[in-house]
Specification:
By secondary structure, this protein is α/β, with parallel strands linked by helices. Strands 1, 2, 3, 4, 5 and 6 form a 6-stranded mixed sheet that branches. Helix 1 links the parallel strand 1 and strand 2. The radius of gyration is 16 Å and the shape is globular.
């Protein structure tokens, strides 16, 4: 399988998750690409069987480079007639969406809108979205690190931690197996 891991990471948290996904893909022996999301990135989503796409969450939205890439890919998809009415499913095309978030006020609910925005890109292209992963990530030195303590999620100062990354590694392997089975069915 040809697998893309697409990431927008401002603090490095989402990048850690993306690198873990990429390592799991490589370990399974698949063609793997790890790419930073950007509005001007030359990406042909249809070249990939599975696209893992991740972003940090900022004010309930994806990171700016991810938002720009989504907008660019939507325009490109319409122009190239890859996005058509009713968004029919494309057999053998899968996406997994992930984010890192601090969720200081309402926990995971702060992250859901960002992941759903990313998901709309793949839904419009006809990819089957196999899963959404929400990974806790610490606030980095940006004036908000005091929120690593005392929020709804407790102490998140060292997240994502090794246990989080081990979980992502195993989930990635399971997704690849699921997609492989569905692709041949």
């Amino acid at each position: 399988m040809n697998i893309l891991t697409l990431v927008a990471s401002k603090t490095g948290n989402t990048r850690k998750v993306a690198e873990t996904i990429h390592q799991a893909v490589l370990e399974d022996g698949h063609d793997a690409t790890l790419l930073e999301a950007a509005g001007d990135a030359e990406i042909s989503l249809m070249d990939y069987d599975i696209v893992f796409t991740g972003t940090g969450v900022y004010d309930r939205q994806p990171a700016k480079p991810m938002n720009e890439m989504i907008d660019t890919q939507m325009v490109k998809g319409v122009k190239e007639k890859l996005i058509v009415p009713a968004a029919p499913r494309r057999p053998g095309k899968f996406a997994v969406l992930f984010c890192t978030y601090g969720g200081v006020h309402t926990g995971v609910n702060e992250a859901i809108p960002a992941v759903k925005r990313v998901g709309q890109l793949f839904d419009h292209y006809g990819f089957e979205i196999l899963d959404e992963w929400y990974v806790v990530g610490a606030f980095k030195p940006n004036g908000m690190q005091q929120y690593n303590f005392g929020g709804r999620l407790g102490d998140i100062s060292n997240r994502p931690n090794q246990a989080d990354l081990d979980d992502i590694f195993q989930r990635t392997k399971a997704i690849i197996l699921t997609a492989s089975r569905q692709a041949v069915a």
